[in-house]
Amino acid sequence: MPETRGTFIPMSAKRVAVLMYHHVAAQGGSLTVGVKQFESQISGLVRSGYRSLSAVEFATFMDGGPLPHDKCVLITFDDGYLDNWVYAHPVLQRHGMQAVLFVITGLLGDGPVRPCEGQGTPLPPCPSHQEAKVLMFGDTPDQVMLRWSEVDAMRQAGTFEFHSHTHTHRRWDLECKEAEQKNQKMQEDLLQSRQALESRLGAASSHLCWPQGYFDDDYVQVAGEVGFRYLYTTDARGQNMAGGNPGHIYRFAVRNRPYSWLRQRLWLATHPLFGSWYNAWKARSDARKQRRKAGLA
User: Fold this and answer.
1) How far apart, in whole angstroms, are the C-alpha atoms of residue 82 and residue 136?
2) 15-272 placed in CATH 3.90.1150.10
3) How confident is the model at residue 6 (pLDDT cuts 50, 70, 90)?
4) Average pLDDT, the chain
5) How is 211-258 classified by DSSP, letter by letter?
6) What is the mean pLDDT of residues 91-103?
C-alpha cells in the first residue's frame, strides 16, 4: 500500500478509484453486472459529477500530474467479452462515459459487427461467466468474445479504448517448471499481444492487466522490458494516489448492485483515513479466513 500505518495523509491528497468489470448482461451473476444495475451505476456517476478518465489521463495522474476534473474515476473491463459491446457500450454511449478494456488479443476474431442493445434487432446470446470460460478457451471463442470490427466500432464511438490483457491469458507460472521458461513464455505472450494491438489498432500502449490477477517480481521485470509501465492488479487493498506506484494499480470488483452501493465503495476507495482503515480491516479479515481454511485457527 502507498500509505504506511501511522502516517498522516492530508485530506487534500488526490486518489482515484479504479473500477473492475468483466461482464454486463441481461441478468447479473458471477462476475456479471446486470444491465439495469450497470445503467444505475453509470447514470449515478454522471449525476454525482464524476468524469471517466482515459488511460493517458490516469497515467498522468499516477505520474504525479493533475486530474482533468475534481471527481474522476477509471472504469476498466477485463478479457473482451461480446456482452461488453452488446450491453455495456450502449449504456456508456448514452451517458457520455468511457472505459478501458483489457483484451486477450489471441481470442478476438473477425467478422461483421453484431447487434447491440437499442438497435431494435435480436441480440446475440451472451452466456454466463462459467459458460463463457468454457467457450472462450474451446473451439468457438467467437460465440462469447469480441470481434475486431466491434472493437473498431467502440473506438469510433469513444466508449472504450483497448489495452493488453496478454495474448493467451495463460498462467505460465503453473505450466512451467523452471522460472526461466516461465519468464520466456510470458515475454512471448506479451510481445504477441503488443504485435496484435499494433497490427489491428495502429499502436500498443504501456498499460497491462495481469491475466487471472497473478504476477510476481519476474513478471513485473519482463513487462517493463517489453514496454509496459502501468500494471493493473485485482488487488483492492490499497489506494491509487498521485505519484504512486504505476506498477501496482489497485482495482475493486464492481458487484451487481445499484449506484448506492457503488457510491459507498467509491468513498472507501478514496477517503484518506477511512479508506485506509477499511483496507486494513479487510486484509486482517482475509488473513483470518485463510488461517481457518488452513485449519490454523
Assistant:
1) 11
2) no
3) very low
4) 93
5) GGG---HHHHHHHHHTT--EEE-S--SS-EETT--TTSB--EEPPS--
6) 98
